Amino acid sequence: MNCMKDEPRQFVDTNVLVYAHDASAGFKHQVAQQLVASLWESRSGCLSLQVLQEFYVTVTQKVNKPLPAELATRIISDLGHWTVHLPTVDDVITAIAIQQRYKLSFWDAMIIGSAYALHCEVLWTEDLKDGQSYEGVKVVSPFTT
């Protein structure tokens, strides 16, 4: 999926995708579903291979009502139409630098590095500080009111 003209790229972290497909998540489910739908419509959604991997494990094993593997696979196949970052060794090196600079977990640094590599303006997540910018990518929690 290529972004529509003039639409800024927006990176979606695993937790937001999980909430979008976890009906037991209540308010967060509704908000995440709306966000993901709007990103489909604007064709501005981005993610990484890491997000797809984490999504599969979480929705099939860790949520209250796990999804069947076949459904999770279809969702991942659909999300493959978004702009997907496939990290390289250089991206891992960049993530280590981000981790050291900002004192983050390595996995959060990989997410930030992927958003940066895809030239995303926004990183949708609840795992990092809302409003904080890393490498020019602004963290936004869709769940803050």
- What's the story with the biggest beta sheet? 6 strands, mixed
Return Rg in Å.
14 Å
> Could you tell me the strand content as a percent range?
5-15%
Note the gap between the termini.
Answer: 30 Å
Mean pLDDT: 96
Oligomer: single chain
Please write out the topology.
Blueprint: E1 10-12, H1 14-20, H2 27-42, E2 45-48, H3 49-62, H4 69-79, E3 83-85, H5 89-102, H6 106-117, E4 122-124, E5 133-134, E6 137-140
Helix pairs in contact: 1-2, 1-3, 3-4, 5-6
Structure in words:
This protein has helices at residues 14-20, 27-42, 49-62, 69-79, 89-102, 106-117, and strands at 10-12, 45-48, 83-85, 122-124, 133-134, 137-140. The radius of gyration is 14 Å and the shape is globular. 51% of the residues lie in helices and 13% in strands. With 145 residues, it is α/β, with parallel strands linked by helices. It has a single domain (10-140), classed as 3-Layer(aba) Sandwich (Rossmann fold), CATH 3.40.50. The mean pLDDT is 96. The chain contains six helices and six strands; from the N terminus they run βααβααβααβββ. The longest helix has 16 residues, at 27-42. Helix 1 (14-20) packs across helix 3. Strands 3-2-1-4-6-5 form a six-stranded mixed β-sheet.
List keywords for this structure.
single chain, 145 residues, alpha/beta, Rossmann fold, 6-stranded mixed β-sheet, globular
Briefly, what is this?
By secondary structure, this protein is α/β, with parallel strands linked by helices. Helices cover about 50% and strands about 15% of the residues.
